[in-house]
Design goal:
There is one protein chain. This protein is of the alpha+beta class. The chain has two helices and five strands; from the N terminus they run E-E-H-E-E-H-E. The protein has a five-stranded mixed sheet, with helices on one face. The longest helix is centred in the C-terminal third of the chain and has 21 residues, at 75-95. The chain is elongated, with a radius of gyration of 14 Å.
Length: 106
């Protein structure tokens, strides 16, 4: 089970665990792949955004996070953009509730 948590205040997304969808070999899990793509997209978009002061990332199998530091006055607009990525995690959870759990922590 992937546990994904997003903190709206710190703009931090943390994911831990493995989806174990369909007992596929390591590196071929559909749900893990989708969650990873969303995480990498968040990091990439944040690094390219003019509304971001800094981005901290960590990517290891089963353990990843992205923390975005918004430029002054940009937190709310940046959060709106990030929530587009988070919508993908919510959809994954609805489709594969046995594989991923997503929650907002603040």
């Amino acid at each position: 089970m992937i546990e994904a948590r997003f903190d709206r205040v710190s703009l931090s997304l943390v994911m831990r665990g493995h989806a174990d969808h369909g007992r596929t070999p390591e590196g071929y899990d559909l749900v893990c792949c989708a969650a990873s793509v969303l995480m990498y997209t968040l990091a990439y978009n944040a690094e390219k955004s003019r509304m971001v002061e800094s981005v901290e990332t960590h990517f290891e199998p089963g353990d990843a996070f992205v923390t975005v530091c918004a430029s002054e006055g940009c937190h709310d607009r940046l959060l709106e953009q990030i929530e587009m990525i988070l919508n993908g995690l919510e959809m994954l959870e609805k489709r594969y509730p046995e594989c991923i759990r997503f929650a907002y922590i603040s």
